[in-house]
User: What shape does this take?
Amino acid sequence: MKINGKVCVVTGGAGGIGAALARRFTAEGAKGVVIADLQEDLLSGVAEEIGATPFAGDMTSETDIQVLIALAEDTYGPIDVFCSNAGIIRLGDETAPDEEWQLCWDLHLMAHVYAARALASKMAQRGAGYLVNTASAAGLLSHVNSATYTVTKHAAVAFAEWLSIAYGDKGVRVSVLCPQAVKTPMTEGRDQGAASVDGMITAEHLADCVIAGMDSEEFLILPHDEVQTYMQRKTDDRDRWLRGMRKYKAMFPEGI
Assistant: This one.
């Protein structure tokens, strides 16, 4: 899919990956861009910069997502591209409080579910549309210092796979974005962790990868080429891969 002339919505759009995607969609000639985030001050700044429509809301709330979608449709017409991108990082293990598990679950999975619940059938009826869900390389591999992040990002990948199976023959395209470390406010000062062993990319480079992935309508968008190799190692010999990941955890006991 080409972005030119399309209506695009980006959640987590006040900074980092979301802001980079919104800027790139605008540069690609989108008909309209709506960006959503809880950080109202940053959100309004990005919106003013690129001429986007801002929406201050909580992406763990199905009601807020429904209002966001209605705003985009009322302002620009049917949504062509919905980037469900909002996310957080918590370095929690099995002892993390239930509230942290629930927050990660709601933001990393249920936000995607709520968006698809509102849009997938409508896109299928039109025979066109694109759902781009941000997960993480941790959703394909693991995050050695965060169970809460790993488990919920795995769920995000699984849900994106299901959406592609269910709607791919009905004209709805689905991609899942799975980067390793990206230079964003969320990763600031955390450039020595396991996820950054292959280097941190910029959010702008990631946006380039998303445009290329959408052009070719690839399901997996992997801004770090190494992830494909790591996935193959994991499936070829799971026990060997787990031993290697235990070594990484020993090398990087803290941080992302």
Observations:
- The chain has one domain: 7-251.
- The domain at 7-251 is CATH 3.40.50.720 (Rossmann fold).
